[in-house]
Design brief:
By secondary structure, the chain is of the alpha+beta class. It has helices at 58-77, 139-145, 151-160; strands spanning 33-35, 38-44, 50-52, 55-56, 81-90, 99-109, 113-122, 125-136. Strands 1-2-6-7-8-5 form a six-stranded antiparallel sheet, with helices on one face. Strands 3-4 form a two-stranded antiparallel sheet.
Length: 168
């Protein structure tokens, strides 16, 4: 991963993240943009993500919302985080071949954790909504807990959290 101000979190993702890595051949490849006080993504999914014919699997819906919340958390402070809680409420089925928008924003933040909420929409129709809690992976946390995590992960997190990478 580049360690300069030219880092672009939209495309320079060294992970194989199912939600946002652009090089993951089976992933969702979601791209996020600033959207008012939050971040959003627009996408259309095909039959590879179905549960029943024409309907996207509910676990994929939850994944999209989790990724959208996580992106809002990361981009709000440029600190990586992991999900510690996720509550998803489903309103109606998500269909294949239809464009959707997922959007999330921060609702609360302290030095250790961030809460975010988001929604998945088809036009103005609510498909699903989620609230999540995220533990910030600050340098202090990485130093204290690093022995419990793979060294490659620690290196990637420290690179992603570098102040030189801030901004869009």
């Amino acid at each position: 991963m580049p360690e300069s101000a030219s880092f672009d979190p939209r495309t320079d993702n060294p992970s194989n993240c199912f939600g946002c890595a652009q090089h993951n051949p089976i992933g969702l490849r979601l791209l996020f943009d600033a959207d008012g006080d939050g971040y959003s993504t627009r996408f259309t999914l095909g039959s590879d993500y179905e549960s029943f014919p024409g309907v996207i699997h509910g676990g994929i819906v939850a994944t999209i919302l989790d990724e959208t919340l996580a992106q809002a958390v990361y981009r709000a402070g440029w600190i990586s985080a992991f999900t510690t809680g996720l509550r998803v409420r489903y309103g109606k089925p998500m269909e294949t071949g239809v464009e959707y928008t997922a959007r999330a924003e921060i609702t609360r933040r302290d030095e250790h954790a961030v809460r975010a909420s988001g929604e998945l929409l088809h036009g103005r129709d609510l498909v699903a909504a989620a609230d999540g809690t995220f533990r910030l992976l600050t340098e202090q946390v990485l130093t204290e807990q690093g022995r419990h995590l793979p060294s490659r992960l620690i290196t990637a997190l420290r690179t992603a959290n570098q102040p030189a990478n801030q901004g869009e």
